[in-house]
Amino acid sequence: MFLLLLKMMKFGSVIPFGISGNIVLRTALLFVLVFAAGMMRNALMLTRMNPIDLLKDESRGEREPKAKWLQAVLAVVCLGVGYAIAVTTENPIRAIAVFFFAVILVMAGTHLLFMSGSVAILKLLKKNKRYYFHKTHFITVSGMMYRMKRNAAGLSNICILSTAVLIVLSTTISLYTGVSDSVNRSYQRDVQTSFLCPTEQMRITEAEKAGIEPEAALVEAEVEQAVSEHAKKYGVDVSNVFQKFSLFLISEEAGRNAFTEISNRDGALEGAVMVNIVTQEEYNRFAGDKMQLEELPDGEVWIWDSADQIGDGETFTLYGSEFTAKYLPQEQMQGQDMTLYVDNEFGVVENSFRCVFMMVSSRQELERLTDEIHLFCGRDPDGGVSQIKYQYWFDIDGSGQQREQFLNTLRDCLNRAGIPHVATVGNKFDDLEYFEKLYANLFFIGLFIGTMFLLATVLIIYYKQVSEGFEDRSRFEILQKVGMDKREVKKVITTQILQVFFLPLLLSCVHIAFAFFIVKRILAIMGFVNVGLFVGCTVASILVFAAVYGIVYYLTAGAYYRIVYAAD
User: Among residues 377, 405, 433, which one ends one of the domains?
Assistant: First the structure.
């Protein structure tokens, strides 16, 4: 397992593996204590029982269990609430908080369903005379009804463990196999740098407070020149340059078609509206001829609303400023040029929050709007409201060593060049390596835990079938003595085993289907939004697990048959 982890994390060097004797001793001591506790419990139970009663206990039989309808209803309520939370929770940050609560509800509902709901269902089948008075169904329903009281806990454990295996494997496999896709979605170019751009009014205000001259505005040509000279120094070619100015706001609704500063700062961003503002002037400069946008009169802006609440020609208010909306066509929003003008943050959350994309006419208009927003919020320039961000992205070409040297020293180069307010300097190569190692760790943990849970499931199933085989041997001997041939007895056994064996697997698939929605939103926070890949990994995990489950069924059913027919 250690070698597998190193392989998944793509470590080139050899890392020695050692076994700690102290840890082995502690583990052995823990298991000794667990087994000793179990033996003491059994010894205490035996001291309170009569040996004759123990000998007669197996032949005494059990009373028919009563259907506990209250528990059955409670099971349905727990499952229903857990499923509802999983399906209706739209906010991905809130999904993390409620996920474990939903898991607890589903686990409790699963246990109650097998403890009481299964007996209730069997009681209903017994009342159906057409179904019940059939030689196969009669024996199967009767046998399962008496057995369910003892086996319900085991079946619920099998169901919960199966669900855990499938969720852990499907999510970790999705993250590991989709790491390149996630990084490529975050990086439109190989290297992405960003700079904060205070407006002229902000620079003057800050200078007056400090008693100094206002700092100069950021000049795009200086950024381009610094990057170009740095690339020449290390023999790297820069190409496919993209640059833009944008303003990203986390807002909330203040009435119909009105947005203001968000007041809920509890970390879940409940009711948040993401507003991304760019300039039409820059978009038209980079967009293709077919994707150009016509100039709009003053007070009118291009708009796209994920909730489709702002209609074409309607008036809307943003932090006290009023605009008339000119709605962007859907084909325009789906164009390749437009995707470059949507912030990475906007792209990750657009399926979870309401998002508004807005285009003002020019950079001057963007600065004017930014000043009005800060004035409306009553904030200092360095307060909680976002500032305009300049983004400079580009692709690079060169050898591995040249590229590494260029990337490792790029931020220092920009600082030495005097470029103000360097915010981020990122590249897809370092991020890909980082996330490959991170998701390899998660995938390894998923495989390890999945293997442990699968082994636990197999052991529960196997020993359950073996113990039931010894209990059922005398019963099936009686059935053969009263006239049922071996073929009919085997049919009864097969039906009974199939129903008990695959019922937990079917219910776990139902759990997975409902958990899919909330797990998908949690994965979105980690930058994974490839739903198709997640569906494929989930289905593949279920099919592989079902195949393993089927093999276990085949082996345990064979052991069951051999025990039942041992007397022959």
Answer: 433
Cβ–Cβ < 8 Å for 338, 332:
yes
Q: Beta-carbon neighbour count of residue 544 at 10 Å?
A: 12
Same domain assignment for residues 288 and 242: yes
pLDDT tens digits for range 26-83: 999 999 999 999 999 989 888 887 777 666 665 555 555 565 777 778 888 999 999 9
Decide which of 92 and 235 is more confident.
235
Is the model's pTM score more than 0.85? no
- pLDDT value for 89: 82
CA 401 vs CA 397, 412, 434: distances in Å:
11, 18, 18
d(CA 179, CA 185): 10
Instruction: Indicate whether 270 belongs to any domain.
Output: yes
Question: Are 457 and 425 contained in the same domain?
Answer: no
Name residues whose C-beta falls within 8 Å of residue 280's C-beta, 6 or more positions apart in sequence: 293, 295, 296, 302, 359, 360, 361, 362
Per the structure, how many domains does the chain have?
A: 2
> Is there a contact between 246 and 276 (Cβ–Cβ < 8 Å)?
yes
Q: Which residue range is the domain that position 353 belongs to?
A: 193-433
- As beta bridge partners, residue 509 has none
Q: Tell the residue number behind the tokens 């009864």, with chain if given.
A: 492
The answer to whether residues 100 and 208 belong to one domain is no
Token representation of residue 404 = 């590494």
Q: How much is the average pLDDT of 112-129? A: 73
3-state helix, strand, coil in the chain (%, to 5): 65, 15, 25
Is 20 inside any structural domain? no
- CA-to-CA distance for 105 and 95, rounded, in angstroms? 15
Pair 122, 145: CB distance under 8 Å: yes
Long-range CB contacts for residues 270-274, cutoff 8 Å, separation at least 24: 270/91, 270/94, 272/353, 272/354, 273/353, 273/354, 273/355, 273/356, 274/248, 274/249, 274/250, 274/345, 274/346, 274/349, 274/350, 274/353, 274/354, 274/355, 274/356
Looking from the CA of 269 toward its CB, the CA atoms found within 13 Å total: 18
Whether 43 is in a domain gets the answer: no
pLDDT digits 0-9 by tens, 212-249: 888 888 888 999 999 999 999 999 999 999 988 999 88
Residue 383: pLDDT band by 50, 70, 90 thresholds?
Answer: very low
Q: Any bridge partners for residue 389, and if so which? A: 196, 246
Give the Cβ contact number of residue 262 at 10 Å: 17
The residue out of 406, 433, 460 marking a domain boundary is 433
